[in-house]
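User: Please work through this fold.
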Amino acid sequence: MAHQLRDMHGAARAVAYLMLAAGPYNFVTGVLMKLGDPLPEVVALAITSCALTVVGLICLRRPERMPRPFWLLVPLLGAGVITALNVGTADATMGPQLFYLWPLLYAAMFLNRRLVALTVAQISAGHALTAFQFQESGQALLDWIAITVAMSMTAVVVAGLRERNDRLRGVLETQATSDSLTGAANRRAFDAELDAAVATAGHHEPVALIMIDVDHFKTINDTWGHAVGDLALRTVADALREAAEDRRHMVARLGGDEFAVLLRAAPYGAVRFTELARARVAAATGLPSGPPSLSIGIAVLPDHADNGDDLQKAADAALYRAKEGGRGRSMMAVPPHPLAATA
């Protein structure tokens, strides 16, 4: 999405706190402290203060009720309201201009660069409208340049820090959910993906769980050394990823020489995946020990289970039968009901 909002919760809180502060502030400074001013001006400020407070309460308590474009346009709306208040009160001093920092920081924290630049441009134009209307031209020019440069530099710094933080967070998330040796997902990520896949699975989108053991892996380590064993594991992980053929999938290393693959596929598609994976492992070069063989167990939801735990048990049982049958082979799980097995 071109104008995707980052962190809906944080954005809602930022808007709510600003509105709940700005409403009472404007009521005190623009209404109570200026009761002798023209009545239309005082009434307009009172209505604006009430509107800000109401919007703040909605953003705090029921942010989902606000239309999505609101969250993208709120810094522009905020800058517009600040400009209107500054013009309405004929106040071009630097104090009220500092309120422009809020829409600027909101845009820099939660929106993309294009909207940040648009917000800076609106702030610059809004301050120019106020300054050149109520100040001597020379002073107005100096103030306008100062505000524009300060807001631009603030936007650049905050957006840069945000992007750097996003990159660091992405690295940490990858490290927390992936296996450092093979680049496959780890057990934590696998469990989360399995729960999500089972929750959305059905007859129109089955989920295959494929459990894989590298045969005689201890022998590879003992005979050729751990470096060759690590290379064999990376070879298997690469082959599993490549065999997915662009299907939605997750390859995970559950520990040692045990891998798991979640695949959006029916039994036939899962069997085809295992054949491709074996072929890719067999074609691997550069392994002094030669390509390892694989024992594989396959279970499909809803054919062999109706929940995540039973799906894992069915795939593990199929893997056990593959190993008991001589290794280097694939076995499909047995349907849980006798009638299903004979259908």
Residues 134 and 277 are 74 Å apart (CA to CA).
